[in-house]
Amino acid sequence: MSRWVKFTTLDRLPPGSALEVDYDGRIYALFHAQDGKISVIDGICAHQGGPLAEGKLDGPVVTCPWHGWQFDMRTGRSLIHKSVCVAIFEVKVEGDDVYVMVP
Q1: In 3D, which of 32, 33, 34, 54 has the Cα closest to residue 43?
Q2: Is the pLDDT of residue 20 over 90?
Q3: DSSP character at residue 79
């Protein structure tokens, strides 16, 4: 059953930053865009397992630091190979706390 889990606080994830969170054996990549939007995707690149939280965020697109694969944060879909996706997760902020809907 899916549930909301507190992953971090806003002071640990300021605008323009990213954070990798290991929760229950899964790696998540949290991004706080300059426009204030927080997005969460699977933290492991579907190509060869690169750390997506270490990638560059440009608008809604994150680029894996290992081989340059790009993923749309809104859909999880790769811009390199349209048939490849990473999971995306719902996010909510309550006060300073950032919650993620985990499976």
Answers
A1: 54
A2: yes
A3: S
pLDDT in the model for residue 31 = 96
Write out the two tokens for 65: 């630091």
Strand order in 3-9's β-sheet? Answer: 3-9, 97-102, 91-94
Residue 56 near residue 29, CB atoms below 8 Å: no
The SS3 assignment for 56 reads strand
73 within 8 A of 41, measured Cβ to Cβ = yes
Q: Could you tell me the CA-to-CA distances from 101 to 6, 8, 36, 38, 85 in Å, in that order?
A: 9, 13, 19, 13, 18
In angstroms, the Cα distances linking 56 to 33, 68, 82 are 11, 9, 20
Strands, sheet with 38-42, edge to edge from the N-terminal-most edge strand: 17-23, 26-32, 38-42, 88-89
Residue 68 has pLDDT above 90, yes or no: yes
- Is 90 exceeded by the pLDDT of residue 11? yes
Rg for the chain, CA atoms, rounded? 13
